[in-house]
Each structure stands twice: as C-alpha cells, then as structure tokens.
Amino acid sequence: MTVHLPAMENILEIRGLTKTYKGGFTALNGVDLDIRKGEIFALLGPNGAGKTTLIGAVCGLVRPTSGTIQAFGEDMGRHWRRLRARIGLVPQELATDMFEPVMRSVTHSRGLFGLSPDPARIEAILKSLSLWDKRDTQIRALSGGMKRRVLIAKAMAHEPELLFLDEPTAGVDVELRRDMWQQIAEMRERGTTVILTTHYIEEAEEMADRVGIIRQGEILMVDDKDAIMKRLGRTEAHIVLTEPLSALPDAFSNYPITISDDGLTLTYRGGDGAGQGKADVAEITKALTRQGIDYQAIDQHESSLEDIFVDLVEGGRQEQMA
C-alpha cells in the first residue's frame, strides 16, 4: 500500500543529533531527519543501529549529547513538557500495570497529560483496537498481541499528533500483525503522523510513505519507497544454456553479464529498479536467438526492499546513495 502525499510541512526536524554514553559508545552520530506532517514513516535498521535511542531522544527519555530537535515548529529542549503532551509512544517492552483493567489503565494514561476524562474518546479507541470487549479484563490476562494493543491505546489516549511505534508488531502472529497494520493506517487517516521502527521489512513495504535506513547511529538514506526501488533496485537473471560457451560473445559486451566456469550459465546483474533490467534481459534473450545460442531456462529476480536494506546495512551500496 503506497500513498503518494503532496508536499507537506515538517512536524519534526532533527539536526546533528548525537548521543554518546559514558562508556564511549556512540548510539547516534550526527543524525539529520525531517518527518512530514501526516505521513507514515518507517525507520529500518539492525539491532543496535540507534532506532530506539532516536525515539527516546525525541520523547524525552534520552538526553542527547548534542544537536537540536524541533517538534511542531518549536524547540523540544526549551518547551519539552508542553510539546511532549502532543507526542505518543508505544515502546518495545510490554511494561504496563499488569493488574489494572484495560479501561482504567488507558483512562489513567490520558490523565497523566493533564486532560480531563473523556469516556467516549476512550471507548472509541478501545473499539478501534478491538479491545472494548476486554475493557474490564486485567492486562496480565491478555495475550501478547492484545497487550501490545493496550500499549497503543494508552499512547493514543491523550490524542497525540505525532505517534512513535517502536517495533509495534514484534512477537505477534502474521494475522494479528496485518490487523494492526490496518489500525495504524486508520490512525494516519485521523490525522496522526506515525513513525514506526520494525524488523519486518514487509511492514515498511505495506504501510510506509517514506523509509529511512539507519546503521551504527547514522542515517544512510531517507526517501520514498518507489524512489528507493528505482535508485537501488536491481534485476538478477540466470540463463541456463543448452550447450556450453567457451567465452562470452562480443554481442553481449555492453551488458553486465558474466559466464560461469563451465560455460553453461550466463548471469545478468543490472538495471535501475524501474524496468531497465527486465528490458535488458529481454534483449539478451533475443540476441541469444540471433546468435543461434539455445537456452533451456531463465531464472529472473527483482530486488525487494529487503534486498536493498540488507545490502545497505552490510555496507555494499553506500557509493550509490549520493
């Protein structure tokens, strides 16, 4: 699901954000990041990349070493308490009062931000997350997926304009994960800007308008999904020949093709993620026919966002991001 959004104002602007802990470990290293109002933004990165530290810095849980954070056009450092009331956070950990009933716990979260009781609002949130039937159930009696929904309800109780979801579907089954994707999409439709971190690349492909990739505390790239696919996507094709070739014919010298040691397989790796690779492979097969070279099989693969992500975090494609 890709939603193309018009140019929008930034709801969050991060400049030069650094966090170095006492032991010398640098969790964030000069992070610059803009989040647009009304979008779903997915921040991808391996464990230890700095995703949770970045969220913690914005939400006031981590004190940055240097840098600035502007939220809603104001300096978070100077107006933290007032601005934090406009931000919601769903943490990774299922840390909540396990002996509280769902309704009371969510209602209490609203009161923490100084808002007056609003039973109708709480009811609407619980119903949207399929928690209304569990409103009188103690949180400890819920399944892991339902507990995670309670965390989302608690984060939504004070009607935040900016919502952070740190690994929102970790540990839940595929069916529940897709149900929660729908809930997140509905949050955005109600006007909430959503930033999520995830290990599930398909979540970013399914939901996000833009994707950011972070590694070792540094932002490697931020772009629309389609733009990333076009810029870094590749086609890989393996053409199995009927008879071996002793060398690659000159007719294929302009294509990024290699030939296997046994001369039976041609491998193409190239394209631009926008169809060029598919066009090249089609031309290569025509050229093989013109050369009288028979082939018996073609195995063709287009890069997924996961392929690109893995390549980036392993450091293989940095030169292509400029």
Topology:
Blueprint: E1 10-20, E2 26-36, E3 40-44, H1 51-58, E4 66-71, E5 74-75, H2 80-84, E6 87-90, H3 102-112, H4 119-128, H5 144-156, E7 162-166, H6 174-189, E8 193-198, H7 201-207, E9 210-215, E10 218-224, H8 225-232, E11 235-241, E12 257-259, E13 265-270, H9 276-290, E14 295-302, H10 305-313
Parallel strand pairs: 3-8, 3-9, 6-7, 7-8
Antiparallel strand pairs: 1-2, 1-4, 4-5, 9-10, 11-13, 11-14, 12-13
Helix pairs in contact: 3-5
Overview of this protein structure:
Helices cover 32% and strands 27% of the residues. It has a 6-stranded mixed β-sheet with strand order 6-7-8-3-9-10, with helices on both faces. The chain is an alpha/beta fold and 322 residues long. Among the domains are: 10-86 and 160-230, P-loop containing nucleotide triphosphate hydrolases (Rossmann fold, 3-Layer(aba) Sandwich); 234-302, Alpha-Beta Plaits. It holds the Pfam family ABC_tran.
List its salient traits.
alpha/beta, single chain, 322 residues, disordered N terminus, 10 helices, elongated, Rossmann fold, four-stranded antiparallel sheet, Alpha-Beta Plaits
